[in-house]
Structure formats: C-alpha cells, structure tokens
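Moderator note: this is an archived Q&A kept for reference. The question asked for a predicted structure of one protein chain; the sequence and the answer are reproduced below.
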Amino acid sequence: MSDFLFARSQMAMSLAFHIIFAALGVGMPLLMAISEGLYLRTGRPIYLDLSKRWAKGTAILFAVGAVSGTVLSFELGLLWPQFMEFAGPIIGMPFSLEGFAFFTEAIFLGIYLYGWGRISPFMHWLAGVLVAVSGALSAVFVVTANAWMNAPTGFEIVNGQVVNVDPIAAMLNRASLHQVIHMTLAAYVATGFAVAAVHAYFVLKHKQSTFHRAALSIALIMACISIPLQLLSGDHSAKAVAELQPAKFAAMESLYQSETSAPLAIGGIANDATMELPYAIKIPYALSFLAHGDPFAKVTGLAEFPRDEWPNTQVVHLAFDIMVGSGMIMLALAVWAGWLWWRRRTLPDNRWLLRGLVAAGPLGFIAIETGWVVTEVGRQPWIIYGVVRTADAVTPMTGLVTPFVTFTLLYIFLSIVLVFLLLRQFLETVESGESSKATDLKELREGQ
C-alpha cells in the first residue's frame, strides 16, 4: 500500500471511529435532558434514575469522543499539511467555534454530573439542556467546514495565492444548510434507535420493568419523530448534490450516460469498463424526480466528466444503497410503532416489534458511516471540490505505515475500554430495572 493510501486509510479509519461518538454526543444529552424534564414535571423517581444513568453513559462516550477528536486534529496537520495551508485561513472560524462549543459542553456536563443536590433542580436541568445544545452546535460547526469542502466559496485565488477571505461566506456555503440538517437528524435517528434497541432487549426479558419501558418510550419517540424528517432531509440533500456535485450524484446511482426521465437504480454492480449497471432494479422516472423534482428532467451522467474526475463508482453506489436501505427499514419500524401506539395509546411492546428494534439498533450508525462514505469518496479526486486534488494535499513524508498501525491499535484499545465500561453500565441498569418494579408499585399505591 502506498503512503498516499495509508494517509487516506488512516484518516478514514479515524473519522469512522469518531463519527459514532460525535453522533452520540448530539443525541444522548437530549435524551437525558428530556428524562429529567419529565421528572421535574411528574415527580416520578423512575425518570430521575434514568437521567442519572444516561448521564453516566454520556460521560463515558464524551471522554472517548474527546480522545478520538484530538487524534483527528493532529492527523489534519500531520497527513494533510497542504490542505491546512490552503484552507486554514478560510475555515479556521468554524473549527474555532467548534472548540468553543466543545468546551461549553464539557463545562456544563461537569456541572450536570456533579451538580445533583448542589444546585436547584431547574438549574440542573438547564445545565443538561445546555449540554444538548452545545453538543449539537459542535457538530454543526464541523459539518459547515466539511460542507465548504464540497462547495468552496468565500475566497479568491490570485496568482496562486488565496486572497479576499470571507470566513462567514465560507461557513454559509451552499452545501451547509442541507448537510447540517441531514447530519443533525442522523445523530438523533442513530442515537434514538440504538438506545431503543438496548432497552427493547431488556423489555423482552423483563416486560414489567418500568425503568426500561420508560427509557424505551423516550428513545422510541425521538427515533420515530426524527426518521421521517431525515427522509425529507435526504430528498433535499439529493437535489442539492445533483446541482452542486453532479459527478457525485451520478456515481451514487452509477448513471454513466445522461438521461431524461432517468430511472432510480437499486442494487446492481457498477462496471466502469462497460459503463453499465447489471442486476439493478430500476424504478422509471424516479431518479429525475429525486434530482430535480421533475420526472422528465435530464440527469447528468458520468460520461460528461473526464475519467480522472470520476469517484469510485462501485464504492459510492454500494454505500448509497446501504444508507438508503437502512433508513427505509428504520422508517418501516417507526411506522409500525406509531400504528401500534395509535391503536392502543400505550407503549408499543409487541414482541416482534421489540425484536425488530433490537435487530435495527446498529442501522442508524451504519447509515451514518455509509453516508459519510458517499460524501467523502463521492467528492474524490478532490479534497476541495474543483479546487485542490487529494493527491496534491497529502503529506510528502514517507513511512506512514507506523502511524497507521499505532492509531489502529489505539482505536482497538479505546474500543475494548469502551465496551467494558458500557457493559458494566448495562449490568447496573438491569439491576436498576429490577428494583424499579417495587418503586413503581409503591408509586401506584400512593396514587402517583
């Protein structure tokens, strides 16, 4: 493997590891804030217990995410010095704001964790809300920087030098809005379904556990509200990509020749040599409608671009199919849960639904990972779309196999530590779920 591929592989591995914690850092604080808000409203101890236990999990995930995020910041300078030299003055502002949001999140998370009984209940809940807001803002600022790489603006190039830098215009580039909305909703979807899967598993084992039933209901509500919004966001994102990055959009569907009334291809094996997509299921007119809102519109194919500007069609198309497929499965589960709730007006605890939720637990994160594959691999061969090629931005140093192996071992170690800590947390949660039965019976006797 060449040093260029080692650099790309190391960055890809680091991003794939970190994005999980970034998403959980957006979703988990919202869950714990909602739970504590319900405690303040109802006075039920079960919600207080739930808030405390979710807060412990959030702290663990935050710590690991902080480590992996720090590694990423070093890798940007180590592996992509030319990129940082070019882009630093332009996108330095969102990275600085992300650092501010990160430290704000850390401060209020500390207040939340150690403020139980030391500050008023309302102020404690407000600290949790600020953790949720700061976590979301941290993700927003990073995504605006990535969006700039897909739609670079806010600068001029004169005699090979970057001049007239406008960092606000760079942050508000044409890709920012749809990427920010899509990623934020993705974090809520992934967290909602993952947490719902954990508690659905325990509800299957202990159906009368009020602790796990309360946790499942909150997580399921977040997941079921977020996933249809995410599908609408995905439609908006697809139209934006078709306009701003037509080569990426063509690769997503492995569309080689420009077509009017283009069909949407599901599955298939992209073949760049023959420029065909055999074995695909095609839905007539659907791709034109997805791209332009018009079933008879023309969609630009890859043949319109030079071969050396094609993304890896096979990878992008497969990743896009997995992302969309994962989203559709989660949407089906959300519709099923909503229908059961509408019929019974109670927690949908059908055993088959609970089993489906357990199986679907990883799908939100699979969708996030494959979505970022579409975003990053689909932009290739450009690191800054249409401006700087990835090959021109990589470090000239050799011997990148050593840092690649080192960071790989670091991520394996962090994963082992994380699994150990979360398993211990889950075992404590099981005990809490069992003890909560007696608590809930006591509440019922007292008329609460």
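Archived answer notes: The mean pLDDT is 87.
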